[in-house]
Design a protein that fits this description.
mainly beta; six-stranded parallel beta sheet; 17 strands; 5% helix; 35% strand; 226 residues
Length: 226
């Protein structure tokens, strides 16, 4: 008979500032642990080494994974996936009727998994996966197509997508490049894209205050602290 799953109601990283992170913020080697709610809220995380931030490659499942009102950034661009369940367990092993949801809402992402898949799934493009991508400022994070990058590179209409207004681009040597033309999957759920330079105040020192006249500021995108 299959091993019983331990159910954990919630794990939260909330109202904290973490500087100099050089290893996983959450790493699970536990098998058969079903985390109902995994939350990062109102927090700033600075990553200084090339590591997977949320590492589920050895076991456990996060059913509702939410990052909101937060900033994840790296002074030097990282290449490891922000989240990975590769070689780990999948949600339907914990619950055959599961819908596994990944949400990024009102958050600022900078230099996270640059030009690589933002997430690495054991299985991507599944009908039991849901993505919620709302009101974020995404710069130098994931591949050019952030929508498919969060799906582990899968260009599939199978997952459920809830995508509203976001800003996605690159910032290299002070030059901002809009990536809105890339943001689509087969179901064409790219949402509304804000295309201009967010005019961050001082990225070198972790200050992502938006330019007062920027469209991102007008639309209240990204981590509210900025």
């Amino acid at each position: 008979a299959p091993a019983a799953w331990e159910v954990v109601d919630s794990i939260a990283v909330k109202d904290v500032t973490i500087k100099g992170l050089g290893k996983a913020l959450y790493y699970s080697a536990a098998k058969n642990r079903n985390i109902t709610n995994f939350l990062v809220d109102n927090s700033v995380v600075e990553v200084v080494k090339d590591v997977t931030i949320f590492d589920f490659t050895k076991g456990s499942v996060a059913m509702n994974f939410v990052v909101k009102n937060s900033t994840l950034y790296a002074p030097t661009a990282t290449t490891k996936s922000v989240y990975s369940s590769q070689s780990g367990q999948k949600a339907t092993e914990a619950d055959a009727a599961a819908v596994q949801s990944f949400s990024f809402e009102n958050s600022t992402l900078y230099n996270m998994t640059y030009n690589k898949n933002f997430f690495t799934h054991r299985q991507n493009s599944q009908k039991w996966i849901k993505y919620v991508i709302k009101n974020n400022v995404v710069v130098n994070s994931g591949k050019a197509n952030f929508i498919t990058s969060i799906n582990g590179g899968g260009d599939s209409a199978n997952p459920v997508y809830e995508v509203t207004t976001n800003s996605v681009g690159t910032l290299v040597d002070g030059v901002y490049t809009d990536l809105s033309a890339n943001q689509t999957v087969q179901s064409n759920v790219m949402g509304t894209l804000v295309t201009s330079d967010p005019m961050f105040k001082d990225v070198a020192n972790g200050d992502f205050t938006l330019g007062e006249a920027s469209e991102q500021n007008t639309n209240k995108l990204g981590d509210p602290r900025w």
